[in-house]
Amino acid sequence: MLSAIASACLTPSDVPVVRQRLTIGIGAVSGNTAGLITAKEVGLFEARGLDVEFADFARSTSCVTAMISGQVAMCAGVGGVPLIHAVLAGAELRGVAALVDTMPYSVVADPAITAVSQLRGKRIGITTFGSSSDFAARALLAGAGLQPDDVTILTIGPQRVRFAALEAGRIDATLVTPPITGLARARGLRILIDLPNLGLDYPHSLVVVTTGMSQDHPETIREVLAAIVEGVRYFKTHRDEGMRILARYLEVEDPGMTAEAYGFLSGIISETLHVSASGMQTVLDGLATTNPAARKADPEDFLERRFLREPQAGGLHEDHAGRTPPDPFGVARIRKKAGEAARATPPAR
Q1: CATH no. of 106-199+328-344
Q2: Which has more pLDDT, 98 or 8?
Q3: pTM for the whole thing?
Q4: What number of other Cβ atoms are within 10 A of residue 16's Cβ?
Q5: Region 20-102+202-316: CATH code
């Protein structure tokens, strides 16, 4: 009775806020997840009644495995390649948003290498087979008229580890993003090509959920995505705070490198989170060369966009009946530009 009277006397500000606890796995903490980590840092999840924790798995495949086993509610920073591989293998997963929808890598090499075509016979470091860095490396090779057998592809790990291997001479080239790109320039390594400049449509960093999560907790997914959209906007409009968050999560001490990373990421992280069907189709076309199941698959088999409140015109539900013939890895565009860009790029100073 007393508790009932006490409750009746509480003002709205006195009532304890009960938030939904949620663990979001991250394929690898990087600048690609800037909107996500900003949403947590500035309280945007809490404002939507969510108590969010992050679990860093360093690799997309590990995060996806943890999600399937129920360790995390959803995964952020998952590449389109691991998602497609998992679904084709029977996993009930869907990509619900895109954090980055282009290839964000720069190809860094030994200064003696002046063109992508000169990678023949060389060692290229990637995260792991089936990762986005693996796909991007194969796309780059195909664009230069090379086959995977023309080089040695080595699984090294995250980009900091790959960069260390390049500096130590254990590999001849790898793919990196800022702030490592700035460090590569400072160390005198050669930037062969900046893939974002090619304008490829590519699902590099996705938010992925299980179909069970999408069926049972659709509103939770909507609130998470809405908070990320707000996080992206905050990140892009609050430069000093955005740089502070980047420096903390990416463990960067050099202000110049942080500024370079901020400028780069502000240009590539998506403000709408909408996933492109054409980007997923590019991945399927590339995988179809070795996986017959990818040849028969439709991009919509891997995506679910109903959680985004303001769907873009076109996008996922565009008509593919008249689309251009498959272009595995986006080879046509890379082939058109890669050689020229590589030859025109002087060694970093």
Answers
A1: 3.40.190.10
A2: 98
A3: 0.78
A4: 6
A5: 3.40.190.10
